[in-house]
Amino acid sequence: MTSLKTNRWRLAREALGACLALSMLLAFMAAAVPAQAKDQDVFAPLRAEMIRQGTDPAQVDALLGDKRVRFEGRLMAVLLAPSERSLNYGQFLRPKTIKAGKAFMAKNAATLTEAQKQSGVDPAVVVAILSVESRLGIYTGNCSVFNVLASQAVLDTPEAQKILAKNWPRKQKAELNRTKTKKRFKRRAVWARKEMGSLMRLAAKEGRSPLDYKGSLAGALGMAQFVPTSVLVWGKDADGDGKINLADPQDAIHSVANYLKAHGWRPGLSNKAKLKVVLTYNNSKPYAKTVLGLAQRLR
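Predicted structure:
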């Protein structure tokens, strides 16, 4: 989740449960109405964009016509509607989390030491990020990355917004017509179209179908919760198996360390400078302060 600098990533982590809870219902709905007929119009702009980015038209049609592909109206409402709740970052500083983090550090000591040698990044900070992002890989998400990115990629179209309105919280309907909201949808759509291109390149590189990837509500992958662009740019194949597998601790550790190094982490940074680097991972001060606070407790 490292490319989009927005506090909405917090909602993505809070809503992982929603992906699981809704999956059976949405699968039933998709089976009842063929995805190709149901979502053909809403994804028409995305089809043109994917072809413009270099994907073969036949492959685009096969993907968008697949019965698994749909506009995720319910999930988009969970992701995008204003929430009265905020993530309780204090939970990541509890003894249970600290104990799990120290156990993870002991188990992966050799990998953390090697990553530190290559990047100069404090191992405790790497483990703190993995803890806050995914509970060290326990909560990585079960949403279709293709679907959630495709849905976000067309958020700036009237067709998508009509579907979204049907799933939007009733008390917040007025929010949809605000200029600020429209601009937010536009920014997210632009970002998601880029991420769709990265997902296609990642899938081609790994010899997988773009439909096979599972991740968070916002489209982030693995323990590190990298979006596809981040996997391509900063992901590391630490175990030498030819793949960047962010569900694997070795790859995840080296990828996070590589990301932080690329964004300015150096040994001896001041606390203010450390905070600035962590904010590039998630542009939330409570998030960044929690990561550094947890790191301090893990040392």
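Summary: The first helix runs from residue 8 to 14.
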